[in-house]
Amino acid sequence: MDNDKNEERPAMQPQDEAALLDEFERKIKAEEKIEPTDWMPEAYRKNLIRQMSQHAHSEVIGMQPEGNWISRSPSLRRKAVLLAKVQDEGGHGLYLYSATETLGISRSEMIEALQTGKAKYASIFNYPTLTWADVGAIGWLVDGAAIVNQISLQRTSYGPYSRAMIRICKEESFHQRQGYEIMYQLAKGTPEQKQMAQDSMNRFWWPSLMMFGPHDSESAHSGQSMKWKIKRQSNDELRQKFIDQTVPQIEVLGLEMPDPEIKWNEERGHYDSGEINWEEFYQVINGSGPCNHQRIKHHVKAHEDGEWVREAVRAYRAKQQAKSEENAA
Amino acid sequence: MNVEQQNLFRFLVGLGDDAVVLSHRLSEWCSNGPYLEEDIALSNIALDYIGRARMFYQYAAEIEGKGRTEDDIAYLRDERQFTNLLIHELPINDFAFTMVRQFFVDVYYCEYLKQLCESKDERIAAIAAKAVKESRYHLKRSEPWIRQLSEGTEESRRRIQAALVELENFVGELFIMSDWEKELVEAGIAVDREKLQAGWDQYIQKFLAESDLEFPDSQLQIRGGRDGIHTEHLGHMLSDMQYVQRVYPGLEW
Ligand SMILES: [Fe+2]
Ligand SMILES: [Fe+2]
Ligand SMILES: [Fe+2]
């Protein structure tokens, strides 16, 4: 919709644009939110579309690895909680798609970008869920990392994104709790359950740290995003925050640290930790993670299988429309 | 357990099995639906049915009084011990099949649960009171789907018709009563499902006729669910559903 309006707008004179840019920058500086009807630089819009649609896709693709355990959940209560959690993620996806649509892109365009690999989603979901403990580890670590990121994004400069984050964060803390609860139950269970928890944490620890993106010095989009206050804290700051809050939780669980270099640094007031395997990071981002193909294929298949349904809905609506016009005539 | 308790236990487990099996099927749509909205909606309905299953199983376990839990009942019985009515266990097939099945059971539960609210057993009446509200809501979603798909495209109509044919043989069982269940009806605890049949047929036929579709009077074709005689599909569902509990017996999760 907004797109159409933009196209109708007469060509902008350079001096108008300069004034608008001033006003835009004043708002950013004053911590006022940018709203869909406000003028914004094209690059700001593009940057937001990239980040927000990537976030929406992450919610939706993230339904798959956890969905992989719905049918095998070990108790009725766990099954209900997991199903509710995955359903929430779908809701987050919907909510974020709508928020992104305010920037003048349609959901179907976004889905096409996802399916053709033009848009990305969180790489963490390209790792497989092999055991029940992985459902716990994802809730605890992956949702945990997402919360750190999203709390920071509540202060993002784009109004609809900020409001989406505020709403979504409330549910994310329930997600993290259910994940931690699963881990706790396993860690306090039999030796084989504890081993399952340890193995799962070991596998998801590093990919969770990777969720925060490359080091600040290497991050392609970070500088501009920070300047426009789309991002409010840097990748490394957020990653450190996550490590600092998670290490004590690992201690409570009584599991071995997933990284032998984790050590409290009195001077910094933070935990030190080992270096991420960046080769793996880029490999997975560039499409060669263990499940990249599977995730997209799954999404495409569901989409294609549903085509006849969407077609029927369109046809039915058209027929109803024609009928009511006939009656009106 | 005396005979009445045995009947009650059997009754509750049957209702729990209906719910757990259908919830499992509905949850299979999660991340596979034609719209993201539909993934969410079908998961919601699945959650309602899990909730029902838990309430029925918990009560059954108390009646039995042997210290079994809802999960023991759900996860540690095999095919021959599961007593769900067969319509609940049929695979999800395509979206048309899933929605026709849902429409059929929604119409059924709206009436069945309404009557079950009158049960002399207060616990059952309370479960029914909660569940009937859910089913009314489910029906409000399934009916428009049947309408849209019946009158949408040729393909969607063909798929609806195929689903109707496939389900024809499985609806009769909804209305068949065993002697032990009739005893519970006489005691004012259960509902006489036989008496629901004519109303159900009429409702379904009338609704479908508005889209120019026909559906025959339900007759008893295939039965056995309440006696643990199933389709081949249930065993696969249970081997999936019970996997963790079977591989690691006796653990808490
Ligand atoms: Fe989410
Ligand atoms: Fe998220
Ligand atoms: Fe989440």
Word description of this protein:
The complex is a heterodimer of chains A (329) and B (253). Chain A has 329 residues and is mainly alpha-helical. Chain A is 69% helix and 2% strand. Chain A contains 14 helices and two strands, in the order αααααααααααββααα. Chain A has helices at 2-8, 14-29, 42-61, 63-67, 76-101, 107-115, 132-153, 159-187, 191-210, 222-227, 235-253, 278-288, 292-305, 307-328; strands spanning 263-265, 270-272. Chain A has a two-stranded antiparallel ribbon with strand order 1-2. In chain A, helix 7 (132-153) packs antiparallel against helix 8 and helix 7 packs parallel to helix 9. Chain B has 253 residues and is mostly helical. Chain B has helices at 3-27, 36-64, 70-75, 95-116, 122-151, 154-171, 179-186, 197-209, 233-241, 243-247. The radius of gyration of chain B is 18 Å and the shape is globular. The two termini of chain B are 30 Å apart. In chain B, 47% of the residues are buried. The structure holds fe (ii) ion (FE2) (3 copies).
Question: What's the SSE blueprint?
Answer:
The complex is a heterodimer of chains A (329) and B (253).
Chain A: H1 2-8, H2 14-29, H3 42-61, H4 63-67, H5 76-101, H6 107-115, H7 132-153, H8 159-187, H9 191-210, H10 222-227, H11 235-253, E1 263-265, E2 270-272, H12 278-288, H13 292-305, H14 307-328
Antiparallel strand pairs in A: 1-2
Chain B: H1 3-27, H2 36-64, H3 70-75, H4 95-116, H5 122-151, H6 154-171, H7 179-186, H8 197-209, H9 233-241, H10 243-247
The complex binds fe (ii) ion (FE2) (3 copies).
